[in-house]
Amino acid sequence: MSFWKKDKEASGNMAPVDDVGVGTAADVEEVMKKYDRESNVRVWEGIPKVIIRWLMVAFSFYSIGVTLFGKGLREVRLTRFLAMILIIGYLNFPAKKGNTKVNHMPWYDILIMLLGAGGFFYFSLNAKEILMQATKVTQNPVMVAMAIISILAMMELCRRSVGLPILCVVGALLVYTFANVRFGKVIYDLFYTTSGVMNTPIDVCAKYIVVFIIFGAFLERTGIANFFIDLANSIAGSSAGGPAKVAVISSALCGMVSGSSVGNTVTTGSVTIPMMKKTGYKGEFAGAVEAAASTGGQIMPPIMGAAAFLMAEYMGISYGEVALRAILPAVLYFTGIYIAVHLEAKKLGLRGIPREELPKFGKLIKKIYLLAPLVVLVVLVSTNTRTMQFSAAVAIGVTILVGIFNRDDRITFRKCVDALEAGGKGTITVAVACAMAGIVAGCITSTGLASKLITAIVSVSGGHAIIALVLTMICCIILGMGVPTTANYCIMAATCAPILMSPEIGIPTMAAHFFVFYFGIVADITPPVALAAYAGSAIAKAPPMRTAFNATRLAIAAFIVPYIFAFSPAMLFVDTNAVEVVQICITALLGIFGVAAGLGGYVYQKMSLPVRLVSIVGGLTLLYPGIFSDVIGLVLIGGTILFQRMSAKKAAA
Asked: Confidence class of residue 13 from pLDDT cuts 50, 70 and 90?
């Protein structure tokens, strides 16, 4: 669900011509095709292109209309939605990468598309009769075959648009389910009830997320991504190592409404990575900064790649509460990266961009109205004035209005059509992944696997929460590889969060959901499958694995903070007061400085290994809320800084 994904023309506007990085729109497109499956689409020209374009537009209009005014049976609404996803999905995604034959769709793709969509359409047209038959429906071989074909068609579309990792998980669970549950019951649960492919993930996708994807597509057409980059340049471009700081700020702003770490890395990275390399950063560091910041955009409130709305639905709390709880962990994440790039710049003696070459803040502030759609959306949703889908529809209207008044990048009828088309395409990947998440949840429910997993992890961990958290972290990173943000969270909420919330482990609900969400997201920068880091390395023309390890080091806060709030939810502002919140904010920021400095090995001069270890330990103790740990941390960090300062003065003398 990449809100900022560019077409060829837009990519050309975004990518600067430079010999140190990606130089042309074709280069950007090539990187996207290599690391982002959403970019590997069929090539349509002429009349077929026009027909499919308007088919996407019609799907977007239909989705908005149904989310706002649709009533009736959930099964009817969702099966119709899934049928349309299969049609537009197969029209867009070929069987393998690199299939660029113009206006070509093989007969077997047409057959799979028609049979798969036909099964869902048949269900939607005969839903009442089918539901009245209950489990007897599986006594009819035709109905069983129809269910199997439709599910397999959806799984094949998942392979094409999302990738193999999630499909391997689904396949393994299906094998386990069929081995332990009666065949007919499995088919019934997964296809004919709302506990399978029509589970909560796809319901939330059809009800909320599709409108937010369309909203993001409209927002892109206002030129807000360029505004974010210019704003970041104006704020931080002239400071030491300015381009790297620009990458951190702009990627945080762009990424918060993006559901694709890879898409965000390539789009903003095509501008920021060459700038960083020009300044003097190594390629693997430049690519890592962009990848880490772009991935972190998914945890940045208020939007959080649309996952904030899902989290509110799963936990049964308001959206405003989710956004509030996410603030401090997100600030710590980006502060850690910002400090790391600043210290790296100091260590290398790098300077910023001359002020005369930067956008003037006075001129940029006149474009502050571009933020109006986001402000309207957040206010409407957080105040519960209207439903989330209605708020998103209003935000789309405000976006169009804002675009009309934007003289530099005025929105036109053609851009509106482009946005609706892009919104339809962007929905495919998320919807398919959500359908797979529903199958995962259905298999776990049918087999009672959740309780078995809990028993197994409790047994392995010996009831120790820290061991259970580490095992859950590993599961989340594996399950999150290459999966879009929203579907990523759906899978984590269905499989991993219940383990942590079990009485044996005892992690609070809020902390458990944030824990699994964070580690599902950082899969995109964690070796060996670190797609965002690899995309950044391709732009920077640097070694992929080095880039991935650098990104992991820069994003260290994402690997530490979840453990902190798992044991002490005060970091999520749970069971605390104003004084404690201020204390936690100050000590946590100091703590992340200590960890970043220790890992980077520099404050005033290069650190020896013992000093680095003291800095890291001091930072970790400050990150853990509590008076005793804070005092220890302050002593260690204060001593480290003082020692560094005195050593630097002595060396200079």
From this structure: very low
Phi, psi of 146 (to 5 degrees): -60, -45
Residue 67 domain flag: no
pLDDT, residue 4, reads 41
Cross-strand partners of 43: 102
DSSP 78-108: HHHHHHHHHHHHHHH--SSTT---BT---HH
For residue 35, the model assigns a pLDDT of: 61
| pLDDT score at 7 | 40
Alpha-carbon distance of 128 to 126, in angstroms, equals 6
In a domain, 548, yes or no: no
Residue 643 in domain? yes
* pLDDT at position 8: 36
In a domain, 590, yes or no: yes
pTM over 0.70: yes
Q: What's the Cα-to-Cα distance from 429 to each of 250, 432, 606, rounded to whole Å?
A: 25, 5, 46
**Nearest-angstrom CA–CA distance, 337 and 347:** 15
Q: For the chain, how many structural domains are there in total?
A: 1
Type of residue at 568: S
Structural domain containing residue 595: 576-653
Q: Comparing 304-313, 317-326, 502-511, which segment has the lowest mean pLDDT? A: 304-313
Is the separation of the CB atoms in 183 and 174 below 8 Å? no
CA dist., res. 473 & res. 463, Å (int): 16
Nearest-CA neighbor of 538 among 251, 270, 254?
270
Question: At a CB cut-off of 8 Å and minimum separation 6, what does 522 contact?
Answer: 295, 477, 480, 552, 555, 558, 559
